[in-house]
Amino acid sequence: MHVKTTVTYLERIALPPDAVLEVELLDTSLADAPSVRLSSQRFKLASVPRTVEIAYDTDLIDERHIYTVAARIISDDHVIFRSTTATSVLTRGAPDSAELVLEMMPRRAGGNDADKSIYDTAWEIYEIAGRMLIAENPPSLTIDQDGQFGLYGGCNRFTGILDAANGEFSMPGNFAGTKMACPEDREKLEQDTIKALSAAVGHVTNGTNLALSNAAGVTVLRLRKMSE
Asked: What is the DSSP string of 33-84?
């Protein structure tokens, strides 16, 4: 079987010649954990809107679960557009098709001209290690001008001092936090969040979005500004 997916974006710009569209079918049933990929396909992309079909195995579909479609456009191994909201398909009354409006992502650069925009802001995590996070109470991060941070990992709360200047990002090796006992799914979410933060060495902001990357240049966390 297939899921028909139409993707577009609002910016009036042309795609680079090497642009590739990647569409994924995800199981997002676990409310507070990274999604599980069921199917992923890539397509050469010259322009938008573009409608494609991604195949999936019906034996993997459980009517009790929630499935969503995500998409991104890649050029030179860099994500230039991606979906940032969950679009349900297949079960619980959802259709077998999806229409996605992708958002432009930060451009790769050696530095960050908007370093201060990471400070005095509450950031909500919506993607961990490339997997979109579906959670009613997602992890969040705040950073003061002096580098003092507050982290809600999904279960416990932590505080400490980090360095996020000139496009770099460095969490301390140890930081203080509560030690609440939490459900297993929330504990895993917290562990995944801290692991990704600990691996981050760089950051780039783009409007209301923040991307943290590891030493290999791979984005490990994506965050958005929380509404005031």
From this structure: SB-EEEEEEEEE-SSSSEEEEEE--GGG--TTS-EEEEEEEEETTEEEEE--
